[in-house]
Design goal:
Elements lengths: L1 H8 L3 H9 L3 H8 L5 H13 L3 E6 L7 H20 L6 E5 L12 H19 L3 E3 L7 H14 L5 E4 L5 H8 L5 E5 L14 H18 L2 E5 L3 H13 L8 E5 L4 H9 L4 E7 L4 H10 L1 H12 L2
Parallel strand pairs: 1-2, 1-8, 2-3, 4-5, 5-6, 6-7, 7-8
Helix pairs in contact: 1-12, 5-6, 6-7, 8-9, 9-10, 12-13
The structure holds dihydroflavine-adenine dinucleotide.
Length: 308
């Protein structure tokens, strides 16, 4: 139960101040985040691509409450995409976008503003020769995110969706999304959700993940299997064999800094592995979710605090 408690505590200004100003945070932050600036991200992308991995890059930021900030994030993505094209990294490197960083939560016209900003990013991605995937945030954003996805796909059919097996609604959403040409990233879900909308037990989240995976493979979608859990990875590879999918017909995905030897092992066995690579100054929310996912990470962090 440490994870949900930590995620709840992470919302308080005191904890945020403590973690973001603590000198010892930086060591652990560096494990999960490529750096503050685009140069650091570009260097990390080159390193991963050289090892045969693909990448999806997240310019960190979320829960934007100002229009100007949303526009700055949109422009940062355009700069990033131009850089990927200039350095010959597209299409091995695409981008992942959080709609809440593009203004989705702004009162009145948040969904329209996020759609408008996302369109600009998709246009830049198309020109660069790569793709965009829309990250999924907490359950209150799912309807808005899926409606923006539908609008974007009318012009950019390659836009990727993300669905979370922890949510009760997801198996229905997966059935709608499981058609040929539909790029769908399946994750377990990183947000603390109420029991009214989400499975509370890990075993139920895992079973739902496997059911959704089967629907994606059976329906002819392009599954993006995002998990570090060996049981989920093995199940995806088993389904690929069952449905006669070759290695270009689906991909595995993991987060930067987690299970790196398994990332390389899957590539060595001939499979596609894409790494989710975050960079930027607004690392707090992303970092706290990574801590919360694994009690050992929290223990490591607390021990570093005590020993410094
Ligand atoms: P699980 O949590 O069961 O972990 C399995 C094993 O993986 C652990 O036993 C441990 O060995 C290792 N592991 C997992 N997390 C770790 C960590 N933080 N540190 C160290 N080891 C760890 N979520 C979301 O809500 N919206 C999104 O858009 C995305 N996008 C996304 C993209 C990609 C490429 C990935 C891999 C994940 C996401 N996620 C996400 C996060 C996802 O929902 C989930 O929280 C994490 O992937 C952890 O779940 P696992 O499937 O890895 O299994």
């Amino acid at each position: 139960m440490l994870g949900p408690a930590l995620l709840a505590a992470s919302k308080t200004p005191r904890i945020r101040h403590f973690v973001t100003t603590s000198r010892v945070s930086r060591g652990l932050v560096n494990r999960f985040i490529a750096g503050n600036e685009l140069d650091a991200a570009a260097a990390a992308v080159h390193g991963l691509v050289t090892k045969g991995l693909s990448v999806t890059i997240d310019h960190l930021g979320e829960d934007t409450t100002e229009r100007s900030q949303a526009e700055a994030t949109r422009d940062a993505y355009s700069t990033l995409l131009n850089r990927l094209a200039a350095e010959g990294l597209a299409p091995r490197a695409e981008v992942s976008v959080k709609l809440s960083a593009l203004g989705q939560a702004l009162p009145d016209d948040g969904t329209a503003l996020a759609l408008e900003n996302a369109r600009v990013i998709c246009t830049a991605a198309q020109q660069a020769g790569t793709t965009v995937t829309l990250d999924m945030e907490d359950h209150t954003t799912v309807d808005s995110t899926l409606s923006i996805l539908r609008e974007l796909r009318a012009d950019f059919p390659w836009v990727g969706a993300v669905v979370q097996s922890s949510l009760f609604r997801t198996e229905g959403d997966v059935r709608d999304l499981a058609h040929p040409g539909s790029r769908v990233r399946l994750v377990k879900g990183a947000y603390a959700e109420p029991r009214t909308v989400a499975h509370a037990k890990k075993a139920d989240v895992d079973a739902a993940y496997k059911r959704s995976l089967a629907v994606l493979f059976a329906g002819g979608a392009y599954p993006m299997v995002a998990s570090h859990d060996q049981a989920m990875i093995d199940e995806a590879n088993r389904l690929a064999a069952q449905y006669d999918r070759c290695s270009s017909d689906y991909e595995l995905q993991m987060l930067y800094g987690i299970r790196t030897s398994e990332q390389e092992r899957q590539v060595a066995e001939g499979r596609q592995m894409r790494i989710y690579l975050p960079y930027g100054q607004d690392w707090y929310g992303y970092f706290m979710r990574r801590l919360a996912e694994r009690p050992a990470n929290v223990g490591f962090f607390l021990r570093s605090l005590v020993s410094n």
